[in-house]
Amino acid sequence: MNREAGMSLTGLLVWGFIVALVALLGIKVAPSAIEFHKIRKDITAVAQAAEPEATAADLRRAFARYAEVDGITDVQPADLDIVREGNRVLISVAYEKRIALFGPVSLLIDFQASSSDR
User: Which end of the chain is more exposed for a tag (fewer CB within 10 A), N or C?
Assistant: First the structure.
């Protein structure tokens, strides 16, 4: 007897639904993840370029310039936590991002970045 192998229509629909959910999640989350990586890159660049006499206001202005170029909207310069350890400047930021998925369902992501992460 010749038995056919393959996927049933129900199996195809279930796998199609799962793939669609994963694609939706990826499409919704990717812009926030990309912006987080830009923020981490920018605070690291500001901390590395900081001069010894630079004030917190100077560092916030420098981050604002980077943020304007990169189109960062999730973090404002006032959200930065700036700490000096000797001659070294550490900049960190923590924020939440709520992403609407569909209907009343949303995804909440806690982002934390520091210039000492790299």
Answer: N
| Direct distance between the N- and C-terminal alpha carbons of the chain, in angstroms, rounded to an integer | 63
- The tens digit of pLDDT for each residue in 90-107 reads 999 999 999 998 889 899
pLDDT higher at 43 or 88: 43
Q: Mean pLDDT throughout 43-59?
A: 91
* Pair 106, 98: CB distance under 8 Å: yes
pLDDT of residue 116: 84
CA proximity to 80, closest of 57, 102, 107, 98: 57
Cβ-based neighbours of 57, under 8 Å, separated by 6 or more: none
Determine phi and psi for 5, rounding to 5 degrees: -115, 145
Residue 80, C-beta contacts closer than 8 angstroms, at least 6 positions apart: 43, 59, 60, 63, 91, 92, 93
